């Protein structure tokens, strides 16, 4: 048996729709959830492998290997990882920023961008972006990812007129793509299950190839999950998401992890990257 985690956002639709349609393996249990929940499940051994925040690998690299050729990434604007702000980011020093509880990678990336690139130090709070909250203090900016970011993007909140795409910002600073999520497999699962893991990896890649060839059909279905999103907007979104872990993406992960290690936010054992298969 293998327990597999899948992010429950529409960004996974090009892989997941094909998987649901074609993969008939009762011994492969698929569990879909927001990334932060998948991170916790994988760390606890409640799932064996799956798509998790790239940060999860960097936090506990001794538990995992990175499945070769799989990721959720973008070269330039990603279209679903945004800081929505009431003021330009240069003015966020000391201000309150609400960070989605669903993400781990983008939270680290945003702090890196604000503190190292823009040189401001806001105050942060983690929480629900759409919670009907009555906060003592209204946040000056929000970090949203995935479907929540797409919803806010489709129906902008006039209180947050400044919108920063974190994939674009990273690309402008480094010239590199950014890897938001990886497909990680637990080392203890690999003991005795190497062939199964290989078969799952190949199946995910095959679903991805078929999904990318059927994008316009898949985006009609996926767009319906986001209020006000048209199929055309969904197609543009899918065209900006990439699912590979090519050498440049590995270089990106190494660069990002090195910065996190310097900041004391990741394990030094996160480098060099450990891939499966090697
Ligand atoms: C591009 C995205 O990548 C996501 C971002 C993640 C994170 O920040 O931890 C985790 C999984 C991905 O789904 C997105 O969801 O918008």
TrEMBL record:
List keywords of the entry alphabetically.
Answer: Lyase, Menaquinone biosynthesis
Reactions it catalyzes? chorismate = 3-[(1-carboxyvinyl)-oxy]benzoate + H2O
The protein's Enzyme Commission number: 4.2.1.151
GO MF annotations in UniProt: hydro-lyase activity
Q: Which GO terms describe its biological process?
A: menaquinone biosynthetic process
* Pathway(s) of this molecule: Quinol/quinone metabolism; menaquinone biosynthesis
Q: What class of enzyme is it?
A: lyase
Check the record and name the HAMAP family matching this protein.
MqnA
Report the family membership: Belongs to the MqnA/MqnD family. MqnA subfamily.
According to its UniProt entry, the function of this protein is described as: Catalyzes the dehydration of chorismate into 3-[(1-carboxyvinyl)oxy]benzoate, a step in the biosynthesis of menaquinone (MK, vitamin K2).
Listed name of the protein:
Chorismate dehydratase
Q: Which gene encodes it?
A: mqnA
